Amino acid sequence: PDSASARCGVVLDAGFSFTHAVPVWDGEAVERGVRRINLGGKALTNYLKELVSFRAWNMMDEYLIIEDVKERLCFVSQDIQGDLLGAKKPPQVNTFRREYILPDGLKHPRGFVKEFSLEAVCESLKKKRQEKEGTKEEEQVLALTNERFMVPEALFRPADIGIPQAGLAETISLAVGACPAVMHGLMWANVICTGGCVAMPGFKERLFTELRPLVPDEFELYIHLPQDPVSAAWHGGRALAESDEFTKRAVTREDYLKNGNRAVQARHLPAWAAKGGGGPPKALYGAAAAAVEAKHSKLTPSSSSA
Prior knowledge:
Blueprint: H1 2-5, E1 8-14, E2 19-25, E3 28-29, E4 35-37, H2 41-55, H3 63-73, H4 80-87, E5 98-101, E6 112-113, H5 118-130, E7 141-144, H6 147-150, H7 153-156, H8 168-177, H9 184-188, E8 191-194, H10 203-211, E9 223-224, H11 232-242, H12 245-249, H13 253-259, H14 261-268, H15 271-274, H16 282-299
Parallel strand pairs: 1-8, 8-9
Antiparallel strand pairs: 1-2, 2-3, 2-4, 5-6, 5-7
Helix pairs in contact: 2-3, 8-10, 13-14
């Protein structure tokens, strides 16, 4: 709530189809700074489908099952090289290995994650060897190791799956850099993450690790994660609908049909941005932003002296 009530910052929305980095100032999106990655939760699920279909069961037609596997088992690695080495270990000592029991419509109407322990893994392997001849396995087991963290890795390295775009950290940096310099300090101090993809364990820590080197030393970096990132956008829309601002921002159907997107911009684009100015007036961003501006001017040569 505190991060949202600040009305300025950067919103990283990693949703179903795309990922957007949207700078916000005084409750308005700074249009010039919006950046998009053509990658979202759907692409990650499809990527996981391809991996498990190639290595284990054919799951190309089982989107909902793989979506559940992704939400339950995937996490963001903090040390990708070290985790890849750990995932190569034999199953008996592999702490990354997890088993997902596929639904069969009879004994298991829904899939679930098998309780993990190295002893249980050894017992399961022993049972498989005993049942190798004769009877068929009762359970259809989908085992995952490095897939658990290599799939979310695509958000930070889209080029790994053939998408020639910047990763999350670089995209946020580009979004902030496209805004007036006086905004930068307050935006870096309030990076808000929403969407289902950011709910993966380790996401916030990894994003901070990659983003901190891209932030100037004079600025603090704070990343905020809502309790429920999936429904955060809905709660924001509900709050807007319940506020007095809604009537000021709403565009009637007649106005939209007559003026198109200009009708929307007239109600949402700040006056300083519409005039093409270098930034908002000091009366708008207050004493805190004025201090950031003063500090920034001391560290960065002005255009007149360049």
